[in-house]
Design goal:
Blueprint (H helix, E strand, L loop, with lengths): L14 E5 L4 H12 L3 E6 L2 H12 L10 E5 H7 L2 E4 L6 H7 L8 E4 L4 E4 L2 E4 L7 H8 L4 E4 L6 H5 L8 E7 L2 H11 L5 E5 L6 H18 L11
Parallel strand pairs: 1-2, 1-4, 2-3, 4-5, 5-8, 9-10
Antiparallel strand pairs: 6-7, 8-9
């Protein structure tokens, strides 16, 4: 059975919150989803900074005039969203999720954080006691529906208004198979992207770690490399 997007659910009515929405990755995802007409809430530790980011995004081309795009503090965004994308720096991952455990209860949480370190030799994956960032998220958010996705999406590509289509696959790891289609439908809101099931949460550590390889590729070839799964 090959990839078939025709059966994906309608997610146009969902509100997507982005925790860490003022950082490069979160900001880029907010722009792309808002550009597709999705209702997006940009979250930050500072509500003022989130609001400023929203105003900057509204100045970019391609956004529908009537798009529902707003900003607020992380706690407010988590509480008001149906699906929450976690795009914070690894250093703040644990503390952010501990703080948001209650408002994230019952929500779909999409973790795209990559635990990486950097030294004079370049990027390298960090060891995570729980196995991966998303497994840490699942342990800290027992009442949420947690999955990993968007780990390998280039922030510069997301942020570039001149790029209409981003041809890459987004690998999805989760314990709940029914979440795959929902997340894949959100992925498909961005032209060119496909959401592909890549196994349970225990398989996420190598997906997160592979980002170090992609960064090395991008530096060597001055590119914005992504992944495309063949034979699907």
């Amino acid at each position: 059975m090959g990839y078939d997007a025709s059966g994906l659910p309608d997610v146009t009515g969902l509100t997507v919150g982005i925790i860490g929405g003022t950082g490069d990755q979160g900001r880029g995802l907010a722009y792309r989803l808002a550009r597709a007409g999705q209702t997006v809430l940009v979250g930050s530790r500072s509500a003022e900074r989130a609001t400023q980011t929203v105003e900057e995004l509204r100045g970019l081309p391609g956004l529908p005039a009537e798009v529902a795009l707003s900003g607020g503090a992380n706690v407010e965004v988590a509480a008001r969203s149906d699906v929450v994308i976690v795009a914070v720096p690894w250093a703040g991952h644990r503390d952010t999720l501990v703080e948001l455990r209650e408002p994230l209860a019952g929500k779909v949480v999409v973790d795209c954080v990559n635990p990486l370190g950097f030294d004079k030799h370049g990027p390298y994956p960090l060891s995570v006691p729980e196995g991966s960032a998303v497994q840490q998220a699942a342990a800290l958010l027992p009442d949420s529906r947690v999955c990993a996705a968007f780990n390998h999406v280039s922030a510069p590509l997301l942020a570039d208004p001149a790029i209409d289509r981003i041809d890459l696959d987004v690998l999805i790891c989760t314990e709940e198979r029914e979440l795959v289609d929902l997340v894949a439908a959100l992925v498909a809101r961005i032209p060119g992207m496909r959401g592909i099931y890549a196994g349970r949460l225990r398989n996420a550590h190598q997906i997160e770690a592979f980002t170090a390889n992609l960064i090395a590729i991008n530096r060597r070839y001055k590119a914005h490399a992504g992944l495309r799964i063949t034979d699907l």
